[in-house]
Design brief:
Oligomer: single chain
Organism: Phaetusa simplex
Protein name: Plasmolipin
Subunit structure: Forms oligomers.
Mean pLDDT: 85
Number of domains: 2
Largest sheet: none
GO cellular component, one term: myelin sheath
Strand content: under 5%
Helix content: 55-70%
Main location: membrane
Length: 135
C-alpha cells in the first residue's frame, strides 16, 4: 500500500519534467509489482509446490534490495522537492511521496530484519518450538 501511494502521488504530478522522479517511479512500480507477486505466491501457497527454492533466502535478498533501492529513491525524491514550485499541488504531492517513500523504506528494512531471522532460523514461536529435554 505504501509503495502504491508513492508511485500514485508521483504519477499525479508533472514528473516527466524532472529526471529524478523517473528513478523514483521505476523503483516504486518495480517493487510494488514484485511485492504483489510475492504476496500472491504466498496467498496461493505456491511456495510449497516449489520447495527446492530457498524462499526465506529469496525474500531476504528481495527485501534487502528493496530497502537499498528505496533509500536511493527516498533521497532522490526528497532532494528534488522544490518548495518554490509554481504549482503548489505538485509540491504537496511530491513532499507526500517523499514521506511515503521513507515509510516504505523503513517497512522494507524491518521486513529485511525479520526475513534474515527467518533465514537463519533465529527465534521461534510456540507452534514450531519443541521441547528436547525430557526428564
Amino acid at each position: 500500500v505504501l509503495g502504491l501511494l508513492v508511485w500514485a502521488l508521483i504519477a499525479d504530478t508533472t514528473y516527466h519534467l524532472h529526471a529524478a522522479y523517473g528513478w523514483v517511479m521505476f523503483v516504486s512500480i518495480f517493487f510494488w509489482i514484485l511485492t504483489v507477486l510475492f504476496f500472491v505466491t504466498y496467498l496461493l501457497q505456491l511456495q510449497l509446490k516449489f520447495y527446492m527454492i530457498p524462499w526465506s533466502l529469496v525474500l531476504m535478498i528481495f527485501n534487502a534490495a528493496a530497502t537499498v533501492l528505496y533509500i536511493t529513491a527516498f533521497v532522490t525524491c526528497a532532494a528534488a522537492v522544490q518548495p518554490t514550485s509554481w504549482r503548489q499541488w505538485d509540491y504537496n504531492r511530491r513532499a507526500a511521496a517523499s514521506f511515503f517513500a521513507c515509510l516504505t523504506m523503513i517497512t522494507y528494512g524491518v521486513s529485511t530484519f525479520f526475513s534474515f531471522r527467518a533465514w537463519k532460523g533465529l527465534g521461534s514461536n510456540a507452534a514450531t518450538s519443541q521441547v528436547t529435554d525430557h526428564a
